[in-house]
Amino acid sequence: MVVDQLDSDEVDRLFAALADPTRRDIVARVLTHETSVSVLAERYAMSFAAVQKHVAVLERAGLVSKRPHGRERLVRGDVDAIRAAARLLDQYEEIWRARIGRIEDILAAPAEGDSR
Amino acid sequence: MVVDQLDSDEVDRLFAALADPTRRDIVARVLTHETSVSVLAERYAMSFAAVQKHVAVLERAGLVSKRPHGRERLVRGDVDAIRAAARLLDQYEEIWRARIGRIEDILAAPAEGDSR
DNA sequence: CTGATCTACAACCATGTAGTTGTACGTTAG
DNA sequence: CTAACGTACAACTACATGGTTGTAGATCAG
């Protein structure tokens, strides 16, 4: 299990990595099948090197990891990174819910200085 | 409520907008307080125009919206966009869980050709 | 061993992004 | 009315990013 406390740079890399359709597709694929980079590359209308770069971005973000298998590198998705991102978003929703509480406080309090 | 079906470009904009610490901070702030752009700008060590641009990025991503209030524009966070992003991530986790099912199938099946 | 395959990496180009400053315009305060 | 304020937008710089091609090192197949 991965440490759940992400610093700002890690969050940057996480969301930035997810902000590209090719990379999201790669993540979805390697979450189910561990796949070599070259097999991945066949699926996309770009060069092998371009796919390699996308994988590197995902790896720096912690969304995938590679392991050597003979001459190929098998890429596999890391669901923990996705959960960490999801937790982040949940925290924003909690901030939002806290606001509701305050509004209800305001409504519950009798209007002071209601100078309309 | 916002339409929940996001196309690829919208997802790109969503995650890209979240991939910046200043923008995440702005979102957190305006989720609780509706805040003018100039008041927001005081909080960050950059020019007013730079903050304005960040707000514009967030707006294009659907994470905030602006409403005119006299000469100022009040920015408020939209939690629906955050929920949409969270749902996206949940879908990746579901993809991952589906893989588990398949692994269990493999384990359940008697080993064929178990040539160790 | 030799050739084909998979990967890594560097160099390069085009484009987008984050920041700046400057200008212009509507709105509020006095 | 005039001055100050809040915003919008354009132009510019610096740098990151997504793509390319080319080269080189490991590893596998025959």
Q: Could you explain the architecture of this structure?
A:
The structure is a homodimer of 116-residue chains. With 116 residues, chain A is an alpha+beta fold. Helices cover 62% and strands 12% of the residues of chain A. Chain A has one domain: Orthogonal Bundle (Arc Repressor Mutant, subunit A). Chain A has helices at 8-18, 21-32, 37-42, 48-60, 79-108, and strands at 35-36, 64-69, 72-77. Chain A has a three-stranded antiparallel β-sheet with strand order 1-3-2. In chain A, helix 1 (8-18) packs antiparallel against helix 4 and helix 2 (21-32) crosses helix 4. The radius of gyration of chain A is 21 Å and the shape is elongated. Residues 109-116 of chain A have low confidence and may be disordered. Chain A binds chain B through residues 8, 11-16, 18-21, 24, 27-28, 31-32, 77, 79, 82-83, 85-86, 89-90, 92-93, 95-96, 98-99, 102, and chain B through 8, 11-16, 18-21, 24, 27-28, 31-32, 77, 79, 82-83, 85-86, 89-90, 92-93, 95-96, 98-99, 102. The structure holds a DNA duplex (30 and 30 nucleotides).
